[in-house]
Amino acid sequence: xxxxxxxxxxxxxxxxxxxxxxxxxxxxxxxxxxxxxxxxxxxxxxxxxxxxxxxxxxxxxxxxxxxxxxxxxxxxxxxxxxxxxxxxxxxxxxxxxxxxxxxxxxxxxxxxxxxxxxxxxxxxxxxxxxxxxxxxxxxxxxxxxxxxxxxxxxxxxxxxxxxxxxxxxxxxxxxxxxxxxxxxxxxxxxxxxxxxxxxxxxxxxxxxxxxxxxxxxxx
Length: 219
Prior knowledge:
The protein is mostly helical. The protein has six helices and no strands. Helix 1 (3-37) runs parallel beside helix 3 and helix 1 runs antiparallel to helix 4. It is elongated, with a radius of gyration of 19 Å.
């Protein structure tokens, strides 16, 4: 196998490891929301405990990238590819951190009856997770158009976030005994909004990977 083929093979291995990491993070996010909706404290704790595996994958990716940089001295597109792999893995790890934060919010709320039926938060989460899927696929396929579509969807999540938090905060005066729950649910909305932001960051890195130019897609 030629030196180039070996390098390309290692790059494919990095992408496969990133896909594994993304799948674990997505499961963690879905489970954290399920724990919140169903007062499932045990599932929330499992999400928190499972974060170590995602962190370990990120460390593996970082180590592999640094070894490749040291051994291969890549330039131009190859160097961007390795740089972006580091950044994407960090963004995915932060998404997993948001899952942990949602799980902790579920634990804080505990078995307290929800102040209202929680319908809009799962809808917001569906949009955010669609962005996750789009951004990671754009990265794997180096698809600039899909990256741009992902970033455009961020406005939908931002609008839902603003409306949900406003609705929750206006409930405080009439429900003083539920203030803690309202605050925790507001935090959850913020964590979901951050998942969408991390997806947008991945989309920005896809564009940089392909074009060599930096764009702020959050503007």
